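ARCHIVE CARD
Drawer: 12
Card no.: 0347
Subject: one protein chain, sequence and derived structure
Cross-reference: see card 0346
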Amino acid sequence: MTLEWRNADKTYGDKKAVDHFSLEVSEGELLVLIGPSGCGKTTSLKMINRLVEPSSGSVFVDGKDVAGVSATELRRHIGYVIQQVGLFPHMTVADNVAAVPRLLKWDRDRISARVKELLDLVGLPADEYAGAWPSRLSGGEAQRIGVARALAADPPILLMDEPFGAVDPLTREVLQREFLRIQSTLGKTVVFVTHDLDEAIRLGDRIAVMNEGRLVAAAAPGELLLDADPFIRDFTGEDRALRRLARLSVGAAIGEATPIAAAGFNGEGGTPAGSVRTDATLKEALSMMLEAGETSLEAVSPAGRRIGKLTLEDLLESAAGTEAS
């Protein structure tokens, strides 16, 4: 489903939390909302499922103004994940995941199959976790259950408000990676709020930057990091070139070269010394070069075939947003 804000405003007393916000989200797109604290990103997100009603303007889901839809009915078809998770402590993991399907009066067998499917999808096998109590879960496990619960009724739209913000950095990275895997499988329309620019760059198809309730820019991560707008340059920081490398792959940097010799590697024993996989990021490749004291690495496919050579010059040109000659 598509989403759209049309001149959406939200005023609290004399303060305008959201100011003439207009933006469209395509079906299957993962849009990240980011900006300084108090910029209006969470308020804008909550307008979608009517947890916040706009003071003026409109929000449309699949071309229909949400103001004309029952809030209860609307929320049953929109997944919602928050930082605090909010699992029901008196219900098992399985019952938490099954909450919305039960409200929708799914039959028992369908619910049971869906719970097992989702627990497997988020990497928490049903045999081990279905009967567990929320108090027994780690922070990362609880967040995974929160995602599973939001996906239970197979909603076309998923709203995520700083869902990984309360876990440690290592767990956060694992959750980000797992969520990208899930999204590549399911292709939901996602609006994701974060204050973490690195998270936005890693996850977003597009990033919408807000400031003082207004939309400053909306662009793909690589394009945003090249934006010359003074606020965007200040917000993305002095290391924006390195952040750009974190979004680009080795394969994209060296182009669609014809595979060369097999390089004596079958893909089963790890990546050979002095080489990097084409699905690695350029930031990872730069780290490998620095650690090895090299200015180039052989690029190999995930299956182990030698594709070409990645040079330090390729990395510098990619960071600057230019193409290798």
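Annotation on reverse: The two ends are 40 Å apart (CA to CA). The first helix runs from residue 41 to 48.
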